[in-house]
Amino acid sequence: MRILTYRGLDTAAIPGIDKLTDRLAADDFRSADVKKVGDNLYRARLDRSNRLLFSLYRHQGERCALLLEYIPSHAYEKSRFLARGVDIDEARIPAADAEAADAAPELPYLNPALPRFHLLDKVLSFDDDQEHIYQQPPPLVIIGSAGSGKTALTLEKMKDAAGDVLYVTRSPFLVQNARDLYYANGWQRDDQDVDFLSFREYLESIQVPDGKEITARAFAGWAARQRLPKALKDSQQLFEEFQGAITGADPAQAYLSRDAYLALGVKQSIYPQETRAEVYDLFEKYLRFLDEQGWFDANLVSHAWLSRVTPRYDWVVVDEVQDLTNVQLLLILKSLRAAEHFLLCGDANQIVHPNFFSWSKVKSLFWQQQADSPGTPTDLVRILNANFRNSPQVTETANRLLHIKHARFGSVDRESNYLVRSCGPTQGRVGLLQDSERVKRDLDQRTAASTRFAILVLHPEQKSEVRKFFRTPLVFSIHEAKGLEYENVLLYGFLSSEEKRFRDIAADLTEADLQGELRYARARDKGDKSLEIYKFYINALYVAVTRAVRNLYLIEPRPKQHLLALLGLTEVHEGVDDVEATTSSLEEWRHEAHRLELQGKEEQAAEIREQILKQRTPPWTVLRGEALETLKQKALERGEKKAGIALMEYALIYYDQRLLNALIQSGVKAAKQPDKALATLEKKHYLPYTLKHPGGVLRETEQYGVDFRNVFDQTPLMVASRMGNADLIEALLDRDADTNLVDANGLNAFQIALERACADERFARRRLPAVYERLAPPSMDIQVDGRLVKLDRRLMEYLMLCIAMVLFYQRLGENYATRAALLSAADFEEILAQFPESIVPVRRKKRQYISSILAKNEIDRDDPYNRKLFLRWRRGEYIINPRLSLRIEGDWRRIYDVLSPQRLGAQLRDPLRWRQHLVHDPNAAAEQALDSLRAHLQALSDGRKLAELSRGSRR
Ligand SMILES: Nc1ncnc2c1ncn2[C@@H]1O[C@H](COP(=O)(O)OP(=O)(O)OP(=O)(O)O)[C@@H](O)[C@H]1O
């Protein structure tokens, strides 16, 4: 058996490791005392009390043991790889033998020369190029085609960096994905603080810009309202020109002057000289449009922010750098404490519209930055040219395209001048299909229900043509296709829609022009503008082809085209028997819709939900806004009994003590015994959420979507969380339930479980750990002093802010009404004391520690890591900073708009009577106190200073 060691495992520090690995290598599992302790997790015996954890794999018929973790003194509960909180009884776990490896998963690639492996979401053995780059110090620019492992390698390199680290890329989807990969399998490093930010979030972390970022869609809407001359009809192209040529390219200015724009060289603009004046007129209109309609342009903001950004990172990683402009990149690099501590990766061949990205520009940007620090390395660029994602057949076609592009237009630049070596795990097919009714019908039948088959067209208008023949919702124009990948891809009329262009591209090339390696060559005719325009078409085709992981099909009405012949596609197939016929489950379609939504492909996601999932809107009325007001009227003013009960239920769910008081006063007796009423309510409304087999809940999610709202404005995830049903939570998360949605109190599902745990010690001990693990969102977006702060869930501040939100309802009203007190360290201490160790370690539960966190995050405290979460009202008493905002479902909302101050209340108390006729009603005084608290919160939210307010003294 082959032995491989995880890169994070320090074998030198493990006693008896050599003897044990010898035994494993000899397949002697018996002497190694191997036992199975988890899913592909085995433990072997090092000595009496120490153990080693490993996994089994196969590679090309060979058995492999992958050593993962040292477990000293039976301390399985501290293991990174075993699920937290495991309880392993060594005497009861089954023994395993070496044959277990024969059924183990296959490793797609294994470098024969490297004994160490890496681990993200899966095991990786780096090839020689990857390993070489992995060993290089920064600065580094890693260039590689799609699927060459840039992201994987970069993330592994990032793990070696201590201090403050930034990972930034344009697409929010990629950011989320990268973060998940990074922390997969329980990875953590205490001396590292990583921000995973999309470029927009990065801008916001310097200063949140006013308005919303302009989108291609909004731009297209604006462009449609202009009278555009024919040459400027393509709004996407115009958008690219504004964002890549007029703004963004020159960091020295926000945008080019008219003269500077007109003077741009042929290669610096999409448009020929004669149309540029009109383009610039439109650009000026665009600037006005942004201003008037409250949009912002990321380049313009980036330029403005150059004067605000300060160094705050020790390491910066920029992924998909080709999607960023020069000014954006400069803004990122300026956040570095040491200018050369960066890692950039990207692929110039994946640019669809020419946005004027070039590696030489990136390099010169770096050199400008470095002007005053000579002695930095000159050779920054490293190239990855393997492909681990696509089948060899698809890679071969992509390589041919690179050849054609090279032969016709010269190299994009010296750095993007390489072919791709396929390490693709599976074989595939590339074929041309007959454009006939029968083929299309058969193809549709095989693919309509499959999430693994997508159709790509060049122009958005072609989508409606495709829909005449194909039912699949997975139809994309090339601009939408970037970043997507599917097992099977059909290009429909891709070349025929621009036959002349593609004919001109293929020109008189012959097979002989497509041989050998690419050599760096400049374009044949630099002045020929048309060549620039053609690049769009060839790049588009390149991107389209590389979306296919395994099989690529083309249907062309006119299949006899020279370019197709150059790609080796001369034979037209009439049968589609080879095409995989799959019916994806509803589950898979749900995932697909969700994945597309995350990537901003709303149109296709909506189509899936409508056509395939057939989701409906629930028939009931959700209690919010007007419906809630009407209910209040019926219950409180008209005294309707049924309405009274419904309103009481609402008040109980939302800790609305004021509403409960009103109900008691209007004679709803049950409201006097909230605990009893709550138990009844849970039986009445939440029973299906407590069952071991929650089929009823899941069926409802199938009808209405996983995040539907019940009458109380709660999603199924929120209710499952409230009931502490970890299995149901798991099932809902598997269906992509959204953990960020909030209820009518502004609390998300995780905070709802916290709310319960704060009030119920048993829940905190028994239910909270499993819920916490699954539901706490990785970070909270907060805004303080106009800047975005991503509060990571690993921080104590995250938990403290969440608890403060919960205590707002549970304690603040009572504290203030009875003692004129707010929230203190004692309140937090009391709550945290009942949380289990796995959530909060003992040292973090101590009063002193809690006080230090409150103090460190006071708004006026001078501390570099102050997140300004709390306002100190008076000594030892706090509220959440009223000037703090939270991002809720995409929009910034001030904290006391998210929470509901009108719900602050205190329990009714009996009037005090003394002598014979003197009566004091404490309830009126309490209400008065709370009114003044509400007024204070409002004033502080509006920007008044605490010192300006007259605060009541303690009673
Ligand atoms: N050495 C390796 N062995 C096996 N699989 C690998 C290896 N390196 C990368 N991969 C896998 O190949 C796939 C592509 O890698 P990755 O996403 O890092 O590529 P990329 O260059 O960033 O691609 P893109 O430009 O499309 O984002 C991933 O599934 C990754 O896990």
TrEMBL record:
PANTHER family: MAMMARY TURMOR VIRUS RECEPTOR HOMOLOG 1, 2 MTVR1, 2 (PTHR21529), TPR AND ANKYRIN REPEAT-CONTAINING PROTEIN 1 (PTHR21529:SF4). It comes from Thiohalocapsa halophila. Pfam families: Ank_5, UvrD-helicase. Residues 579-611 form a coiled coil. ATP binds at residues 144-151. Keywords: ANK repeat, ATP-binding, Coiled coil, Helicase, Hydrolase, Nucleotide-binding. The keyword S-adenosyl-L-methionine does not apply. This is UvrD-like helicase ATP-binding domain-containing protein. The keyword Metal-binding does not apply. Residues 123-391 form the UvrD-like helicase ATP-binding domain.
